[in-house]
Amino acid sequence: MVKKDMEIVKKYQKEMFLLGRANALLNWDQEVYMPEGGIKGRAEQSAFLSKLGHDRATSNVLFTSLKKLMKSRTIGKDKVMVDKLYKGLCKSRKIPHSLVEDLSRTTMIAGPAWRKARKKNDYSVFAPYLQKIIDLKIKEAKFLGFKGHLYNGLLDDYEEGMTVEELKPIFEKLKKGLIELLRKIKKSKKYGKKLKLLGRKYDAEGQKFFVEDVVVRMGLDMKKSRIDLSEHPFTTRFGVGDVRITMAYRDDPMFAFLSTVHEAGHALYESNLPVKHEYDILGDAPSIGLHESQSRMWENNVGKGKAFWKYYFPLFKKKFKLSGNFEDWYKEVNSVFSGYIRIESDEVHYCLHVILRFEIELGLLDGSIKVKDLRDVWNSKFKEMFGIKPRNDVEGVLQDVHWSFGSVGYFPTYAIGTMYASQLYNQMKKELKGIDKEIGKGNFSRVQKWLKEKVHKHGSLYLADEIVKKVCGEGLNPEIYLKYLNNKYGEIYRF
Ligand SMILES: [Zn+2]
Description:
The chain is mainly alpha-helical. It contains 21 helices and three strands. The site of zinc ion has 4 residues, from α10 and α11.
């Protein structure tokens, strides 16, 4: 009996994963190759595969088998998988079909509305759609019925186990520390210097060499991966033997280079997840925040670090015929500046962008912030935190695509990942003696192996915070990140 139910559970999960990956391939093609004329047909193909996946996920056959397995005491090693799957299904079964359909219909038209609003640089074009999305998300959160803040049920979709009650004091500490650090940086004589080395055009052909070189040094197996061009860089997996990243060239060579390092960090995680769980829920990362910690540790802690540039600067210098010394280059790579756009932000400002969105999302859910006032709320909060006021909506409230998808509760994962990254990096440096010397020679292999052993191989057998606790001895802690930033930027800006 148990055996039969287990077979059903495994079969349904495998089909869900296969459908999901076929859909991911359609999305990848849409971003990389598809001509404009393909959009209508692609939307139908994609919706059909999504429906097949959804039918499996919500099937009564699967749910009945899972319930039986939950009661059985003889499932042994599969218990974690069964528990996790059951918990996830119970969560999604709390939301009525009509609400799921309403959300999907609304987000389908909210995307084009968001793009139109950006074109017109006018938030009021998007506001009615956002209002509908927020109303539906409030309904969804109420159906989920999590303890504590209404936001908890939504946050749990991306960061399982994390709550507002735990996160709020952490973000408050982080915000205070970052504003204090920025005050010191902005007082420094070194602040606000014009970029001499990076502030010019670098040819794409030269950039290509470094993009291709760095991913291999990081440990990406190019027989199981590839790099293509798309407007926004992303990583996607079609199977453990096929994990792809995309990138884009800009004049500033750091965009292509460091965004590729970032995506390759995600890709390494995806490639190293446990093969035996390829078609079940344990073969994925336990949270978006932990995923982001992998990309951000490579991009920031390693890729903007001194040791890394000890290796790459002489090569950049030669390739692009730069005149300038290492110290100047290192400072420019890490220069701090007040900007409006989250994805263009430096390490010090980055989490403030995230905290701003977190505070707004909480307010939208508990009703203390109204959608119609959002432009003003955004601008005044921005001024308060960054000291500058967005000049228009595109560089303010309209800059992120997330809300138009109905993703509310996603933003915190960026800051959670950034903090986890520093904690893991700190621990890695303690355990791997001489690692900076190796990185300085272009040998990054021990970093990759360490992350595989400590983080990747677990899949989602544990929650994200449990994995970090196992590795670092404690869960999410903003102090390590603040200490890392203060040391690094204190040296660059001399305070
Ligand atoms: Zn990322």
